Each structure stands twice: as C-alpha cells, then as structure tokens.
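Justification of computing resources. Each target in the renewal requires a structure prediction run like the one illustrated here; the chain below, 277 residues long, is used simply to show the kind of job we budget for.
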Amino acid sequence: MKMKKNNAAFRRLSSKLGSRYCVNGDLLSFIVKSIEKQNGKDAPRRLDPSFGPVITSAICFGDTLDGHGPQGRGFYVEDGGNPYLLSWLSEVSGLPSFLGRTLQFLKIIAKYRLGLRNDADLGAEISNLIGPANSSKSSMPVLTMGRDIPNANLFLKDGRLECDWTLENSQEYYDRIRRSVKAIARALNAEYLDNPSYAWNFHQVLTAHPLGGCPMADTADEGVVDSYGEIFGYPDLYIADGSVMPGPVGPNPSLTIAAFADRSADHIIAQHRGEQR
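Resulting structure tokens:
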C-alpha cells in the first residue's frame, strides 16, 4: 500500500488504514467425474467447463441477516469454466492409459514414414490419442463467494506488504460452504475435491476479490474514507476501488465497485461545480 510506504507525507491518515480486509468469502473447489444414466447405463455427465463463459449460473444460499433464519453467513455457488489446456492436462494425467495410446499413435506414424501406410488423414488417430475426455467433460470448477468476516489487517513488514488473514476466523462459514458444495456433488452423482491450497497448504484459500484496507465509515475513528471515498483529513483526495469496502459484498463485487466509483465521480464533479451534496 503506497500510503503506508509514504506515511510521513500522510500523517493525518486514520489509524484504521489496513483494517477490515477480507477475501469476499472466496473458495475454489471441484466437482469431478459426474455420472448420469443413459439407456439404463452409467455414463459421464457432460458438464463441459471449457465451453462458454466462466460463470453461467449461481445458487444463492440464504443469510441470517436477510431474514432466512439461523443459517449463518450467506454465499453464492457458481459454476466455473476452465481453459482447454487444463482439460488436456487432466486427461494426460492418467499416465498409463495415455502412454498406451501414445505408443499406438507412434506405430501408425512409423508405418506412414516407412511407406506401409498411405492414408495421411490422422484425425481419428489424433482423437484416439487424446482419448474420450470423459474426466474433463464430466468435471468442473466451483466458485463460491460470500460473507467471510472482515477482520484481517494489511501492514508493512521489512518494507513488504503482509496480511494476517486466517481461515480460523471464518471457519464456520467455510464449513457451511463445503457441506453445501458436497451436497451438490452428490446430487450430480460426482465426487467433491478441495483445491490443493486448501487441502494441502494449511487450509489456505484463493481469492480473486480482495476487499478492504481503506474502509469507508462515518468518522476517521472507524475508517479511512467517507461514503464518497474522500480520505478523512485530506480533502479532495479520493479512493474509488475495492479497498474502500468495509466488508464483503457477497456476489462478484465488480458491479458494486463500479457503482461506488460512479457515485464518487458524480460527487467530485458536483463539488468542482460548487454544488451541494
């Protein structure tokens, strides 16, 4: 955070700088090898995460604050997409079968090079090399986001930005997410997998939506900026990004941030023209 690095030039900044950081409740997990009945037999369910946009739909799980009873902190579960490269890697990870298909493909190429085969159309052979793609087409990432507890802090340590966010403070929230996504996986007759960083790396999560650090509030005793993003103690200096959010917004926060920035811009223009708030 540049303001912390230049603290000598911003001595009137609120002591709340760096506070109320959160990850917008993000959690990445996977639903894999979904099965459905076709003609009375088990067959891979076509989920095709490499086709279409990253997110196409969502399930909203109620929040106690919305009057949905003692359910806890709410969240959204969204289907996720992934690039074809990831699908390819998931297929070749089945190394024994892939090596067998590769050997068969190399035999065909050798026959072609030795003049024992004159059919240059290798489309079917390449398709066989890749395999039926049953694993990749019947699996997909699951993106979850919601209301984790915004009580983490950003601070400088040896000139580098540090963060004390831990899963522990929002453990109940994340436990509810995992139970819910596991239930979705069961409904799809599939397996549930945590992302590797959660499963293997001390229960860390991945986030695409870091929020907070310069939280808005009514006074400098509670936050860094006011409701328009103007920094307390520094008139006409504004912040209009996700750092001003005093907590998670729940769904993907880009539209909320854009709406706030638009409101802030309108206010700045009005102030420049001498208009009242």
